[in-house]
Structure formats: C-alpha cells, structure tokens
Amino acid sequence: MAAILGYPIYNLVRLSFQRYGLFELLQHHGVSVGLHNYGSVLHDTVFWHTLVRTIVFTVANVGLTMVLGTLAALLLLRVSAWVRLLLTAGLVLVWSMPPVVAVQVWNWMTNSQNGVLNYLLTQLHLGDYFQHNWYETPFSQLAMTTTLIVWGALPFVVITVYAALSQVPRELVEAAEIDGAASWRVFKDVTMPVIAPVLLILTSLSILWDFSVFTQPFLLIGQGHIVPSNYLMGIYLFEEGYVKTDFGRGAAISILMLAIVAAMSVVYVRRMLRVGEVE
Amino acid sequence: MSTRRAHGLAWDVVGVVLFAVMVFPVFWMISTAFKPTDEINQVTPAWLPGHPTVQHFRDAINQPNFWTDVKNSLIVVLVTVAIAMALAFLAAVALSKYRFTGRKLFVVLVIGIQMLPGAGLIIPLYVVLARYHQVNTLTGVILVYLTTALPFSVWTLRGFIIGIPKDLEEAAMVDGSTRLGAFLRILLPLVAPGLVATSVFAFITSWNEYIFARILLSDGSKQTITVWLSYFLGTSRSTDWGALMAASTLIAIPVVIFFLLVQRKIAFGLTSGAVRG
Predict the structure, then answer these.
(1) Mean pLDDT (chain A, rounded)
(2) Testing the interface with B: which of A67, A79, A120, A206 to mutate, by most B Cβ within 10 A?
(3) Where residue A88 sits, what CATH number does that domain have?
(4) A243 vs B: CB within 8 A
C-alpha cells in the first residue's frame, strides 16, 4: 500500500527535474534538466498573476463559506424543531449533489436567454437582468464560480459547526445571559472557545479544496472560455502541464502548489498528525 | 414572552427562506426535467410543469453512449470500492491494533496524500499510466481512484476500529477462539456498519470524480458518466435543457440515495479524519 501511495509522489518529484514532453512520454524516459522547470515557472508572469488571483479567490470562497456556514449553524439552534429538520434535510440533499451535475444546473439557471436567475432578480426589482450575460468578465466568471462552490460547500460546514455548537453547555450560555452579557459577548466568550477547533479544521480543509479547485471553474466558465486572465492554479496546472504536454513543468507547478497549500494549512496537518498519534 | 415568541417566528422565517434558497437549484433541475420543451423555453418561467412529461428522460437515455458510460462508471466504481475496502480494512486493522516499524511514516503518508490537491497528481499519474499503456483504459482510472479511495478509507475505518474495545477480542481468544476466529466473529461484525458507510462514501466520490476521468479517457465509449454529462452542453448549438436536466437528475439519483443512507455515519468520519473533496 505504501507503494501505491508513495510511487506517484516519488514520480512527481522526479518529473519536476526533467524535461518530459510528448517525445519523452513515448520514450518513457525523461531528460534531467535540474531546476530549469522551476525557473521557467517562477519567471512566468502568468504564474504570479494566477497565484494572486487564486489566493484572492480562495480567501473569498473560504471566508464566505465559513461566515455564512457559522451563521446558518447558529440559526439552526434558534429555529423550531420542524424548521431544523426541514433545513437539515435540504442541506443533506444539496451536499449529495455531484459537482458536475451542479455545474450543469448552474449553466441552466444563469443562461442569458431565459435563465431563472435573471428572471428572479428582475422580478425582485434588483435591476434589469433581462438577457444579462453572467460570464462576461473574468471577475463575473469567478464570482459565479464562487456562488457555485459556496453553495456546494455550505452543507458540510453548517452540519459540522452545528454538531460542535451542540457541545456548548447550555447552562453556561444561560448563566451568561442572566448576568446580562450581550449576545455577541456570549458568542465570543462562551461559544467560540468550544467551537474554535472545529472552525479551524474546517477552514484549513476549505483552503485545501478551494485553492486547487478545478472541476467547477473549468466547467462553469467552459473550456472554450478558459484564458490566462481567468486561470486559477488548478486550471493553470492543467493547461501548462497536460494541454501543452509539458509534464516536467506541470510537475514543478504541482510541487509549488503543494508547498503553498501545505504552508497555508499547517494547522490542519499538525492536528491530524496528533489524531494519528493519540490512541 | 410574546417578544420572545415573535423572535422565534422571525428565526423560523429566516430558516425557511434559507431552505428555499439552498434547495432551489435541485428543485429547478427536477422541475425542468419534467416540463415540455415549450414550457422550458418560455420567457416567464413556470415554477411547476404544467403538463408533466417524461420525454426528456427518454431523450437523455437515448443519447449516444449514455448506457455505455453508465456501465463504465459502474465497473470503475464497483471494482475500486471492492479493492479499496479489502486492502483498507486490513491496513486499518494493522494501524489500530498493532505497532510496527514505519507506522508513523505510514500515517504521515495516509494524511499527506489526502492533502495533495487532486489536480496536483494528474501529471505524475498520467505519465506513470502512459508508461504502462493504461491511458484510455478503465484499469488506469481504477488505479488512480484507488490512490484517493485507499487513504480515505484507511483513515475512516481506523476510526471505526479504534472504537471497538480490545478486551472483546481478547475475551474470545481466552475462550479458545483462534486469532482468525476472533477476527471473523468479533471484529468483522462490529466493523460492518463502518465498512458499509466507508464503501458507500468511496462509491460516491468515485462516481462523482471528474478531472482524472476527463484526462485519462478520451474515447466517448470509454468515458464515465460524469464526463459524458460535462460534454452534453457542447454537443449542440442550442442546448436541450430539458434532456440535460433529466440526465443530471438521473446521474444524481444514486448518489442522493446512498448519501442519505450514510450521512450520519460519515459526518463523524469527516471531522475525525479527512476526505478529499
């Protein structure tokens, strides 16, 4: 089993130091080029622009997911039993939607001819969206991707945070309320310490997923509309490594991505290692 | 008290609105799938199908390669799950019951590979599979899915096995049962629910997987059903939304059913271990 897990990683590292294009793929043999691949990636302005774009994108997606998710979980505590059941059932339903299916539903809901989103927003007098093209600029393309990702990620976050919230001792909250603490204070000083570890894990996991996301942006923006100005890291890797069949360079990009992701989720890794240790 | 009740009602309203917003895309998919084409294309959308029809479902399953690709998906998914469960179960037992050299390294590997962005592994896996002529074969895809399904399954199963008291097994052995007997009669039945939950989850992730299948399988007749669905939009100039939504509904159904079956169990596995999304 260690072989199944270790072999791809070993190959990844080795490839990143080789020239490995279509010719080498047929020969099954790469040519060592030292650090050339890394140098060429680090000198590529597209890489840096994509990196910045992806970080902004990740922060926006993770931030929205976590804030909305926590708010929704707090809401679950306050609603009556039947609403809680209804909402939980709805969340599980959304959670189970395959990403590719969700993309197609998004395509249908936001198509400029008769998308229901255009209709609803116009009806609600939020502006005139008749035949509005939601995918006009890189910003709007990525914003639509964000709605799709946050929608898909919310159920997991809400349900997990809600589970953590139910660990908060009720007496403690009530005592604080009787003592006249404002609800914000109660949340910050009583609830937060209990759910903080869970929020931390969820944030790290979300960073991990959103930073290297591929399926949703790739399919929602559409392969024909993927251009360097709307690249995210996962797509940059796909285009440079696979589409241009420069596997050595692709491997170098993978390793750089890996290093960045690892740095961003150190917290998660350390916690997981501790879980692995304690038995 | 009346203000408190009013507060409660206000929260309920917010809750119902949130429910409506979250569920709407799913509702819209199903509603569209059952509408006749003229209802789909009208400018003012109708919320529910006026004259429900299953024509779109018929169109969807009669598209080229639909059944072939469903079959491909099933083969890939079932083989992956079967192999992953057998190997992962043994590994998880070893990991939670015995101390062995390299155990720590093994844990690091299991966690580490889940950390790797899925996209990050496409390059080395593609190159390795090309070396062994497994590009554009289902075997190649199965091997790739194993690299993701295995670590996840080991990790989740380990959580289930640790929950079982060692005394039980020892008691059976004291009572004259062999190690294998204790394993089969005590451990296996107790882990069974965990095995079911884990395998269903492995089923779902493999069924939903897109990027590897997309890269490895280029023939229309060799693709999995998610890749088939992703190409649907591009097949004609004016999209047949009804058939697309009908196909989407059909592809989502197995996942939804399985998901509802194990959702409770897996929420535990997700927070104690980790899954790649």
Answers:
(1) 86
(2) A79
(3) 1.10.3720.10
(4) no
